[in-house]
Amino acid sequence: IFMFVWAWLGPNLLPMILLSEFKFTPIVGETYHLYKDEKGNFLSLISPKDWDKEHIGSFRLNSDYKWDQV
User: Fold this and answer.
1) What is the rounded distance in angstroms from the CA atom of residue 35 to the CA atom of residue 44?
2) What is the DSSP code (8-state) at residue 11?
3) pTM
4) Which of 56, 24, 51, 27 is nearest to 41 (CA)?
5) Collapsing DSSP states into helix, strand and coil, what is residue 41?
6) Which residue has the higher pLDDT, 17 or 59?
7) Computed over its alpha carbons, how large is the radius of gyration of the chain?
8) What are the CB-based long-range contacts (under 8 Å, 24+) for 16-20?
């Protein structure tokens, strides 16, 4: 799991992102979608409109390596 400097996202969302599973290096400027399944939380590039998973939120990694909710 990659750890990044973060922006304030609220008391529950930031830990969910930082502790989520993902098997890629997030790229600055890209939007990622946080989902929940039976194994836990995970980040994906797949949009919630294209996937029938439990969507928690969408986030973009900014140039300061902070997660912004979109």
Assistant:
1) 8
2) T
3) 0.79
4) 56
5) strand
6) 59
7) 11
8) 16/41, 16/56, 17/41, 17/43, 17/59, 17/67
CA 5 → CA 18, 21, 26, 63, 66, distances in Å? 10, 17, 13, 11, 5
Of residues 33, 30, 31, 49, the one with CA closest to residue 41:
33
* DSSP, res 65: S
What pairs with residue 59 in β-bridges? 32, 69
Q: What is the pLDDT of residues 36-63, one digit of tens each?
A: 999 889 999 999 999 989 999 999 999 9
CA distance 2 to 22: 8
